[in-house]
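worker-3 :: picked Colicin transporter
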Amino acid sequence: MVDHDDEGAEGLQSVSDPVEGEDPAPPAIVPDGGGAPSGGWRARWLVPVIVAVVAVAVVVAGLVGWRVVENRRHDAALDSCVRAVKALQGKIGSDRMAQYREAAGIKADQVKDSGTVVAMARSVKNTEGLRQRTVRCKASMSTGDLNAEADQARKIDSKFAAVAKASKAEIASRDAKALEDARAALNAKRDEASRLLADSDGRVADNATRDSLQAAIDQAGQVKSGKAKAYRDAADALQAAIDRVNASMQAKSQADQQTAAQAQAQASTPRQAAQRSGSSERKSATSNNRRKSSTQSRPATGQRGGGSSQAPAAPSAPQGGGSNWRDRLNRPDTSMHGCNSDGVCGIG
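worker-3 :: tokens ->
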């Protein structure tokens, strides 16, 4: 008995003592009458639930991930569209469009290189006559629409970039020709001013105008600029000085003419008085001759009562001394048959 008890005790001790390094497990409960433990039944319905939950989680995660990716793609498309539109707006702003239209109106004879005009015309044609198109980027638009608008904006931007390049080259060519023409015009104006300065010596009413012209010529020779306006301004200053000198020369010429006319008038006064005196004497003599001629041509006889009259022949001059026949003719006739003092003779 003792040994048996000892063996039972040893057996219990061996069962109750855990193996070193292992977790103690609870004792299995075996129902009366035998059978499987209760954990096996739970495992049969728990596995499908876990699988379903995992599947749902995967689907939800996929949807969430797709949505996140799609939002990122949409945001990227929106940002790309906005940047493309901003770049396009920089080339089709009001200032740029005004520059393009200015360049489009430049003619071939206004530029130094006519090829720039051809290039500008070609680029304007590609933009359909600088027609502006509307490109919109809205957050409510789909990713595909945003990408399409961005592509459209880039195409338009490329066309207007060509217009900007062509217009810049054309305007530069025009400015180069304008600068060259302005320099040539200023040189020609300086030559004209120099000739006038030499010709006007002693022929101006105010010599200060010639001094101003000389100063303008000197300033024109000092112009050094890359802008045509500087040369045009110098040419305008020269022209103003030239006009003042010409006006002064004209004033002196008029004054000289007036002085000469006054001197001539003073010199001709005695001569005109003598001419007027001689003319008066000639007129007086002519008048006397006319009166004498009129007296000699009057009729010597007449008839009262409407009869005819006939002038008698003039008596011959006396052979001897005494008065001439005119004296006898003018004597009064006391017999009323002679001629009166007026030279009229009558009968009865």
